[in-house]
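To illustrate the input format used throughout this study, we show a single complete record. The first block contains the structure-token representation of the backbone; no residue identities are included at this stage. The design step must infer an amino acid for every position from geometry alone.
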């Protein structure tokens, strides 16, 4: 078996949960051969992981380096027709009727196929996307927005533009806006112009731009496409643009592109492996077919995360993870201020590296600590080599994220015999179950109350900690995860094997691949949808 694993901005050039998962998957299936397709910034990144013996090569696809975009010459009709269809999809609001939305997703997928074929036949896709013709087409599409039947979009007192979340079409997109949007599209669509990978399976570790690599391999070679999702890529794109200093029209175009791409990837995939039931619900809402879905929880090796034999004498709350706005350390720090007021001996230790792009955010955390009078008792410890020591250094572990997939921090902490206070995002509640406390995100008072409850009750803390490790041993081991992926790889590459989705609940038995629902492998270069879509 040869697997091409695709990720954006993670393995092997950055630490984080997705990178750990990639490394585990490659090393855990040593009889398979692997290629790693890494979508990077400019190709200058250096690996921070020692390469496994069965990793044959790393294919670097730089998204943001120089290249293309000279705007010389006029793109041919084949490009112009595909790009017009592409633009029509992203300027038109998604029809709320599921059957019509499915048709729109299939049209977007066909438009992407046209852009891919233009690049495969030798066309300069980067230059075409930033050409004067492309800019004109974008402005024409924006200002020519028409919705044949507006009724499904409207509620009392709402205009169509408000209903679909965009500015009025008249005067809503300037030439400067179109230029910026075209520049972004050119970079984001670069995977379509890269040589398609050769493998038995293309496994995208996330939705979004990684899916373009898998699509190209399927169009070129008929390679089955498997899509995992740790967090919800589309949701995180929405959240990232909330604070972006970007013109409204550009935000609309970019986020509409991500929305269309996410739906197209669900349509194109032979199998979907969401990492929590929460993720599964998002996928279903955006057009995924339930008969091609398996909930695949992340797993850890229990022997690598032994249960702690003692607790620190000073009441200590621990966070383990990167310093990132999605982890919402501001809420954790504010919650700790409440804890510290009622329990002056308490300490907060936050372990984890700070990516370069988040140095500013780390600075705001330091300022908040100082402003709340917590200097010396709430500390940013930086990167730690021994995460087991980090988990053992606290009485409990807190995670106040506003977005997660199925976080390793939670299951690692539970394996170490530490109960967790976590926010109800992604698969956090599914992981914790009844072995910890789940609270609402962005609620410092709720986080503080949960932490105080555990710190003040050693018997409860000990009971939940023991239950947490038992829960990991029963449901979330690395061996279980690797077995499930091996089964899925074998099934989607073997037409005569069949499968059914795994249970959609953390309280159900560990996901297994059983039953009799066919998964078909496409053959040759013909474009084959995973299931039929009405014309």
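Output of the design step:
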């Amino acid at each position: 078996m040869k697997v091409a694993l695709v990720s954006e901005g993670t393995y092997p050039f950055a630490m984080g949960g997705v990178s750990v998962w990639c490394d585990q998957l490659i090393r855990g299936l040593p009889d398979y051969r692997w290629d790693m397709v890494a979508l990077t910034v400019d190709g200058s990144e250096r690996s921070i992981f020692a390469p496994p013996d069965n990793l044959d090569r790393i294919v670097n696809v730089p998204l943001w380096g120089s290249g293309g975009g000279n705007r010389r010459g006029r793109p041919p009709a084949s490009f112009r027709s595909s790009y017009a269809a592409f633009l029509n999809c992203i300027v038109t609001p998604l029809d709320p009727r599921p059957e019509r939305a499915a048709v729109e997703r299939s049209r977007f997928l066909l438009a992407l196929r046209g852009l891919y074929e233009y690049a495969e036949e030798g066309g300069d896709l980067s230059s075409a996307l930033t050409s004067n013709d492309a800019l004109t087409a974008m402005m024409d599409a924006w200002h020519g927005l028409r919705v044949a039947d507006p009724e499904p979009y409207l509620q009392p007192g709402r205009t169509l533009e408000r209903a679909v979340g965009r500015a009025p079409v008249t005067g809503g997109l300037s030439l400067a806006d179109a230029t910026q949007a075209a520049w972004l599209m050119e970079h984001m669509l670069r995977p379509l112009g890269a040589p398609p990978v050769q493998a038995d399976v293309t496994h995208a570790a996330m939705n979004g731009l990684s899916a373009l690599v898998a699509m190209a391999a399927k169009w070129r070679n008929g390679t089955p496409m498997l899509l995992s999702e740790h967090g919800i890529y589309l949701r995180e794109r929405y959240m990232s643009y909330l604070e972006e200093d970007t013109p409204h029209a550009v935000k609309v175009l970019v986020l509409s592109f991500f929305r269309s791409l996410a739906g197209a990837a669900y349509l194109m995939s032979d199998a979907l492996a969401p990492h929590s039931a929460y993720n599964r619900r998002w996928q279903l809402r955006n057009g995924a077919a339930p008969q091609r879905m398996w909930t695949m929880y992340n797993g850890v090796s229990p022997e690598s995360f032994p249960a702690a034999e003692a607790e620190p004498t000073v009441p200590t709350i621990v966070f383990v993870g990167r310093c990132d706005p999605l982890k919402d350390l501001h809420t954790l720090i504010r919650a700790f201020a409440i804890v510290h007021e009622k329990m002056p001996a308490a300490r907060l230790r936050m372990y984890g590296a700070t990516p370069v792009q988040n140095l500013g955010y780390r600075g705001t955390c330091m300022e908040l600590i100082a402003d709340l009078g917590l200097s010396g008792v709430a500390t940013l410890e930086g990167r730690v080599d021994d995460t087991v020591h980090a988990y053992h250094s606290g009485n409990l572990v807190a995670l106040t994220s506003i977005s997660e997939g199925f976080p390793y921090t939670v299951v690692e902490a539970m394996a170490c015999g530490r109960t967790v206070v976590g926010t109800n995002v992604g698969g956090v509640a599914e992981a914790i179950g009844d072995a910890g406390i789940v609270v609402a995100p962005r609620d410092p008072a709720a986080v503080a109350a949960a932490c105080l409850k555990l710190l003040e009750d050693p018997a409860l803390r000990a009971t939940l900690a023991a239950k947490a490790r038992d829960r990991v041993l029963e449901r979330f081991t690395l061996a279980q995860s690797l077995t499930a992926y091996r089964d899925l790889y074998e099934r989607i590459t073997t037409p005569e094997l069949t499968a059914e989705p795994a249970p959609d609940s953390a309280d159900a038995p560990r996901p297994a691949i059983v039953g009799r629902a066919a998964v078909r492998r496409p053959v040759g270069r013909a474009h084959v949808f995973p299931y039929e879509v009405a014309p």
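Structural context for interpreting the output: Residues 298 and 393 are 24 Å apart (CA to CA). The first helix runs from residue 17 to 28.
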